[in-house]
Amino acid sequence: MARLLALLGGNATASALLLARNLLIAHLLxxxxxxxxxxxxxxxxxxxxxxxxxxxxxxxxxxxxxxxDYLAAVHGFQxxxxxxxxxxxxxCAGPISAFLGMPDLAWAYRVLALAPLIRAFHNxxxxxxxxxxxxxxxxLTATSxxxxxxxxxxxxxxxAQDWRIMLGALLIQExxxxxxxxxxxxxxxxxxxxxxxxxxxxxxGWPILLQGVVLFAVFQGDKILVARSLGFEALGVFxxxxxxxxxxxxxxxxxxxxWFLPQxxxxxxxxxxxxxxxxxxQATLLSAIVLCAGVMVAGPxxxxxxxxxxxxxxxxxxxxxxxxxxxxxxxxxMNTAALAxxxxxxxxxxxxxxxxxxxxxxxxxxxxxxxLSVVFVAILAEVAGTALALFVGSRRVLxxxxxxxxxxxxxxxxxxxxxxxxxxxxxxxxxxAALLSCGGLLTFSPQLRRILPIRFLASRHSFxxxxxxxxxxx
Length: 474
Known about the structure:
Blueprint: H1 2-28, H2 31-49, H3 55-61, H4 68-99, H5 106-112, H6 114-119, H7 125-128, H8 136-151, H9 153-159, H10 164-183, H11 195-230, H12 232-267, H13 273-307, H14 314-330, H15 332-340, H16 346-355, H17 358-366, H18 371-395, H19 401-425, H20 427-443, H21 446-449, H22 453-459
Helix pairs in contact: 1-8, 1-12, 2-4, 2-11, 2-12, 4-5, 4-11, 8-10, 9-10, 11-12, 11-16, 11-17, 12-13, 12-14, 12-15, 13-14, 13-15, 13-19, 13-20, 14-18, 14-19, 16-18, 17-18, 19-20
């Protein structure tokens, strides 16, 4: 349990630093300039989308993931992938800038092509260490890069008073992360070309690649449509809302997957798998309620104190955006259990439903729709995706959905009521209702209670009532 809390804390620290960086940039820049800066994230996501093979998950999931030759082959694959990504962004810089209505800024996207090239030379030994539940190297790599990127804003703001601040911060973050990954590695950096490993990586990763394409549509499609239809000022507001609500979502999903995936993979084929999978799903449901309430309580404070009057329109949007992201967290547990079983396509399938909602968003915006209507369409699509995850989880992963029934009902009621309470009565009512919801969920979640601090301190047992066997590293 202490490791899980440390994992959550480390990911939360890195995410908080990146959020603080973006808030500071938004505070320093006019809202239209911040909208332009947000397009750099769109460009980076476009490149990553086209080359995402889930190498970190493969290292954890594969029985060969701890081998030296396997790790060297992964490095070779990563360099090839990063080089192609950088070349693609460099060549597409002109069309991207023209599509977004900024043809004069093509040079900035060409400079940004350095980011995937730098990322290609990370030492993935930090991910190998997570096989033994040692998350310190991964956390330190992410946290140190985020911290230096935040600190760099001050000299960058002195040198440039426009969107170039974000461009410099992104490149500095990639450089620091690459250097730290080598410092924290236990094994020397080796590269080899192994076509057998590469073919297996492609076979494992093609559903994740498909999910990357879908995720680009999910996370960036709305932004592109907003920029094209409503302009960069509206994009600035919308992108900041996504940043505030998405940051804790990524912390929760990344931390829970990093914690549960190694243990679920080891429990595959044993009687411990089902209770572990149920506990994983219950943990994500609990996290969804906490995340949703946290954004609703802290969001107005960030808007008033960090962003100023230019972003006041976020006050109405943010509670509903929090619900949208909380629904993504709800199905993260089912996706993690499926990934442990080798069903890597479930995440792509559920996200595809969200991507298919983009034509509806385009129609709404073309008919003078508002940002709030865009968020409501996204919520409906996320509900449908969560329903699909439950159905597939019960059939392919043999996840006992009936055991999750009461917790699902509590979560659904909470996510439906919290935004109404926030907008009608304020944050105090929201916090109280969230506490009651969490208590109700825990009442119906015996598998989850086994890994909470009270039970943990009493028995020092995991959710399977047994300490996982140590992993012997070569």
